[in-house]
Design goal:
This protein is mainly beta and 88 residues long. It has no helices and 6 strands. Helices cover 0% and strands 56% of the residues.
Length: 88
């Protein structure tokens, strides 16, 4: 997974926690495990943080499965849709 860019397709905030980013593909990593990541915004600004992998299931009307990372101490407005995530 290192050096492979994963596109961020949705960003939302979980009250009392931090930004959650939805990736464009499902990644096979253990949920709840902290992983160091680098975010590259569309304006090329970069920053590093820790992401906790989670799985998101939605029903519309069929089940859609997506990977989500909860980014430690990052606010939603710092990660625009279209940013890329790299595992370090």
């Amino acid at each position: 997974m290192k050096n492979i860019p994963l596109r961020i397709v949705e960003v939302f905030e979980i009250a009392g926690r931090s930004a959650a980013v939805v990736l464009d593909e499902v990644i096979e990593l253990k949920s709840g495990t902290p992983k160091p990541v680098k975010i590259v915004r569309p304006d090329r600004e970069t920053f590093e943080t820790v992401g906790f992998v989670e799985l998101l299931l939605r029903r519309r009307p069929t089940v859609v499965k997506k990977s989500v990372l909860l980014l430690q101490d990052i606010q939603r407005d710092k990660v625009p849709v279209g940013s890329q995530l790299y595992f370090l």
